């Protein structure tokens, strides 16, 4: 499977997909948000620093979204952005709507 296929498939087949790095504090915050606020949703999490293809995945995400940083979050196949974007969407009540809509 190509990197493009792997990333695109995981975005379309998971309600929440998070491309993360295990040591990244912003990633920890966004993973905590989902775990605490949406405990019934199990995000698909890729720790890019622990994967052989992690750099290639990060390159493809940059090509796809214009965002190189992690976390890079997708909900209901929609690109949300990083931790700041995700927390902002949550505070507006829009993250819940997206998740419910994807049920
Ligand atoms: N404002 C961003 C900050 C994200 C950020 O700075 N992430 C760092 C890791 S902690 C990053 O991606 N650095 C580049 C890299 O790891 O390739 C957010 O809220 O997501």
Automatic annotation (TrEMBL):
One of its GO terms (molecular function) is glutathione peroxidase activity. PROSITE patterns: GLUTAREDOXIN_1, GLUTAREDOXIN_2, THIOREDOXIN_1. GO terms for biological process: cellular response to oxidative stress. Its EC number is 1.11.1.9. The keyword Metal-binding does not apply. Keywords: Disulfide bond, Electron transport, Redox-active center, Transport. SUPFAM superfamilies: Thioredoxin-like. GO terms for cellular component: cytoplasm. Pfam families: Glutaredoxin. It is an enzyme of class 1 (oxidoreductase). It catalyses: 2 glutathione + H2O2 = glutathione disulfide + 2 H2O; 1-chloro-2,4-dinitrobenzene + glutathione = 2,4-dinitrophenyl-S-glutathione + chloride + H(+). Residues 16-80 form the Glutaredoxin domain. This is glutathione peroxidase. The lineage of its organism: Eukaryota, Fungi, Dikarya, Basidiomycota, Agaricomycotina.
């Amino acid at each position: 499977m190509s990197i493009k296929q792997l990333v695109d498939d995981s975005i379309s087949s998971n309600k929440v997909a998070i491309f993360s790095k295990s040591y990244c504090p912003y990633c920890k915050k966004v993973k905590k948000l989902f775990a605490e606020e949406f405990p019934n949703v199990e995000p698909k999490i890729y720790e890019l620093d622990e994967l052989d293809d992690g750099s290639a995945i990060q390159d493809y995400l940059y090509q796809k979204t214009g965002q190189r940083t992690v976390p890079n979050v997708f909900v209901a196949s929609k690109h949300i952005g990083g931790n700041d974007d995700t927390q902002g969407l949550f505070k507006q009540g829009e993250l819940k709507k997206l998740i419910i809509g994807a049920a």
